[in-house]
């Protein structure tokens, strides 16, 4: 059976995530301990004990990638299943790159913490934000963004999640001014998200360049296929990854396009340590998505796909 492994991005964090893997999977536990030493972050405290840092991007991003990789190790302990390709939503593309051999797990955690810092540095200079739009077509949202840009209002389509759901990014004041325009066009909902960054748009140009420089010494020369958020196509080399992963910060996430491109050659999807993408996939594909956040859920999945 052919599988595609998928990984969620920022917004999937939750206190206690990966705790079951930490307590019951020796490789997952070892990874968390090594990650704490490597990144100088107490991940056991960050993931399992009440704290205010889990929702701060510089900690959120490595926490999510770590949780995803711990789930992956638990999965591989129980089932030796290879995937046709891997993909992630935004930050999740780094997790996908890890499991495909494109980057060392510990190096990835260091990278994404800096990725978060670079993004925040760019957005601290301005008042940035993101807004979710429900119920409009891609073309309608793109047209409104183009009209806004023509009036020097910085609004960009940033995440193509599924039909009828697009997240736009830009200057917070400009987003607020255009909430009514999206609703006037027929949006069921246009709502500002509780975010202080404008991901996947040209406002992160400096962050993109800094991240590319940091990637240079971390990527493997070649690896198994990863689907790019930037163009919804597979890549397998360092030269491709350098361009695509830096572009990812300033170009929209083509998530639904990626799913549609790979579904023809897969039997099912497996989502690690989250169920957010499973929800999106219900609208993107007829193929089954299996997601798990603990070992009981994983064992149930293995009963189905391990036959």
Structural account:
- The chain is α/β, with parallel strands linked by helices.
- It has helices at residues 19-24, 26-39, 43-48, 57-78, 92-99, 105-124, 138-150, 172-184, 205-215, 238-247, 255-262, 276-284, 295-305; strands at residues 3-7, 85-88, 128-134, 155-162, 165-171, 189-192, 222-227, 234-237, 268-272, 288-292.
- Strands 2-1-9-10 form a 4-stranded parallel β-sheet, sandwiched between helices.
- The termini are close together.
H/E order of the elements? EHHHHEHHEHEEHEHEEHHEHEH
Q: What Rg, in angstroms, do the CA atoms define?
A: 19 Å
Q: How many individual helices?
A: 13
| Global structural class | alpha/beta
Largest sheet: 4 strands, parallel
Strand content: 15-25%
Instruction: Tell me how many strands there are.
Output: 10
Low-pLDDT stretches are none
Distance between the termini: 10 Å
On the 0 to 100 scale, the average pLDDT is: 96
Q: Which terms summarize this structure?
A:
307 residues; single chain; globular; four-stranded parallel β-sheet; alpha/beta
């Amino acid at each position: 059976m052919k599988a595609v492994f998928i990984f969620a991005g920022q917004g999937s964090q939750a206190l206690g995530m990966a705790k079951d893997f930490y307590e019951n999977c020796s490789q997952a536990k070892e990874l968390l301990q090594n990650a704490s030493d490597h990144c100088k972050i107490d991940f056991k405290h960050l993931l399992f004990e009440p704290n205010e840092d889990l929702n701060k991007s510089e900690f959120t991003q490595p926490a999510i990638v770590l949780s995803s990789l711990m789930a992956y190790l638990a999965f591989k302990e129980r089932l030796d299943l290879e995937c046709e390709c891997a993909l992630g939503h935004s930050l999740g593309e780094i997790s996908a790159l890890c499991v495909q051999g494109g980057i060392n797990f510990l190096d990835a955690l260091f990278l994404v913490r800096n990725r978060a810092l670079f993004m925040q540095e760019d957005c601290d200079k301005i008042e940035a934000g993101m807004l979710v739009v429900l119920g409009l077509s891609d073309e309608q949202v793109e047209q409104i963004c183009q009209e806004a840009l023509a009036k020097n209002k910085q609004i960009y389509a940033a995440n193509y999640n599924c039909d009828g759901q697009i997240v736009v990014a830009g200057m917070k004041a400009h987003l607020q001014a255009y909430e009514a325009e999206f609703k006037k066009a027929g949006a069921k909902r246009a709502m500002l998200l509780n975010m202080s960054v404008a991901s996947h748009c040209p406002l992160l140009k400096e962050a993109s360049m800094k991240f590319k420089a940091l990637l240079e010494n971390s990527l493997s020369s070649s690896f198994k296929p990863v689907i790019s958020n930037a163009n919804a196509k597979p890549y397998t080399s360092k030269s491709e990854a350098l361009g695509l992963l830096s572009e990812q910060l300033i170009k929209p996430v083509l998530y639904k396009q990626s799913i549609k491109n790979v579904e023809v050659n897969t039997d099912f999807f497996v989502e690690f340590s989250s169920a957010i993408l499973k929800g999106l996939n219900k609208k993107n594909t007829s193929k089954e998505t299996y997601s798990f956040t603990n070992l009981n859920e994983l064992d149930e999945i293995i009963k189905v796909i391990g036959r």
